[in-house]
Design brief:
- With 154 residues, the protein is an all-alpha fold.
- It has four helices and no strands.
- The chain has a single domain, classed as Membrane associated eicosanoid/glutathione metabolism-like domain (Four Helix Bundle (Hemerythrin (Met), subunit A), Up-down Bundle).
- Helices cover 72% and strands 0% of the residues.
Length: 154
């Protein structure tokens, strides 16, 4: 059995976890667009004030900071700061040959922590709550990296 086939249950775990995280990143971008369109505000760049098919009557106040839109934008940025490391590390972790139980705990643990972080951010929980959820996910990726280093040098 090779590491990167569907016959390897660890790789299947990686595929599922990665697909969920990619959908999370892409979905958060669409959520930001939805929020901008819903309230006709929260635009990010001066060129967004040029008239177009969607924004036929631009107004300078559309560029003002709007927490409803910016919260989604911050959530998206946070995903982009965290999920790519999981995607890269998870792939080399699969190659290191962990047990299925270890892979499930670390990979699905990361997914659960990121989804919980999203809920915490969306519901305006404190920084301590968000930081705790970040730490859980980050610790999982660090554990995968350390496992991979040990396997590669071992």
């Amino acid at each position: 059995m090779t590491a990167f086939t569907m016959e390897n249950p660890v790789f299947a775990t990686y595929m599922i976890a990665s697909a969920i995280m990619v959908l999370k990143i892409m979905g958060q971008g669409w959520m930001t667009v939805y929020r901008m369109l819903k309230i006709d505000a929260g635009l990010a760049s001066p060129e967004d004030l040029r008239p177009g098919l969607i924004n036929r009557a631009p107004r300078p106040d559309q560029l003002e900071l709007n927490d409803y839109v910016d919260r989604s934008r911050r959530m998206h940025r946070n995903d982009l700061e965290n999920i790519p490391a999981f995607l890269a590390c998870g792939l080399i972790f699969v190659a290191a040959g962990p047990s299925l139980m270890v892979a499930n705990i670390l990979m699905y643990g990361f997914v659960a922590a990121r989804l919980a972080h999203t809920i915490a951010y969306a519901t305006k929980q404190t920084h301590e709550v968000r930081a705790t959820l970040y730490t859980i996910g980050s610790a999982g990726v660090i554990a995968m990296a350390l496992y991979t280093l040990a396997a590669a040098t071992g």
